């Protein structure tokens, strides 16, 4: 049977599948050519990440398909319910990239509270001529230790992020309409471990009492953070979104940054991917990455291996 990894898959995943007799194709097929390619090559398994969309046209017109797999957590680029109604297996890897996304959140946080994203823009241009000016401009950093991190969505990735925050010495409060309490285990290098309990509170309480925010929610029909929510936040708060584009109102975000209501933002995802708004890209208070939350070698190995195991269990 043939597997098409249209958005790529790790070598470890390929090897695991090939050992069980699967043929793995890593050709990147254009969205409008997918149906023909799948049918011509009798593809049994279609693996995607974020780029490829699996909608009703593919589900209805590709009779050879048995499995649709998403290398990652959210599956908003797949018509999951419809595919399952049609008898297809739909799989994903909810735990494989949690740690990688959490570390990126803290890369944005650490960089933002010390202005690294803007300093790295200006030091190459003006570091030799305006060193003292830049030192003054970027000399008002703050520490994360002792501050409060508000986690909006305390699922797997939210918990992985909370784990780092606790290790850093931050207070963690969380809002999640589906979870009342979580236990966060911290494992240390010498084998010791500690477990922390976090009871979720109201969204309003998180908004009013957090110094920084991180979002870990699926795609929504409406904004999770818009102008009304920003208005409830502390002056100078910072917000990181490594979840999904469209959960933050970027117009309201930019306005709040320009007015000084918010201190900074860190965005890995955008409303208009893959063409983010110019006002977002050019704002010197926004730390930017191009949707790379799960893009570590370790995470991609885990994703590939986990997908391979699920495919093998279903089809063999």
Q: So what's the CATH class of the largest domain?
A: Alpha Beta
Query: Would you identify the CATH H-level superfamily of the largest domain?
Result: NAD(P)-binding Rossmann-like Domain
Beta strands, count: 13
Q: Summarize the main sheet.
A: 6 strands, parallel
First-to-last CA distance: 10 Å
**Percent range for helical residues?**
25-40%
- H/E element sequence: EHEHEHEHEHHHEHEEEHEHEHEHEH
Task: Based on the coordinates given, report the CATH architecture of the largest domain.
Answer: 3-Layer(aba) Sandwich
- Please state the overall shape, judged from the principal axes of the Cα atoms: globular
Number of domains: 2
Rg over CA atoms, rounded to whole Å, is 22 Å
- How much is the average pLDDT? 97
Could you say which structural class the secondary elements and strand pairing correspond to? alpha/beta
Tally of DSSP helical segments: 13
- β-strand percent reads 15-25%
* Unreliable stretches covering 5 or more consecutive residues: none
Major sheet strand order: 7-6-10-11-12-13
Annotate the secondary structure layout:
Elements: E1 2-5, H1 11-19, E2 23-25, H2 34-40, E3 43-48, H3 56-61, E4 67-70, H4 80-85, E5 89-92, H5 98-113, H6 116-126, H7 131-137, E6 148-152, H8 156-168, E7 171-175, E8 181-187, E9 193-199, H9 203-209, E10 212-215, H10 227-232, E11 237-241, H11 250-259, E12 262-267, H12 278-281, E13 286-288, H13 297-315
Parallel strand pairs: 1-2, 1-3, 3-4, 4-5, 6-7, 6-10, 10-11, 11-12, 12-13
Antiparallel strand pairs: 8-9
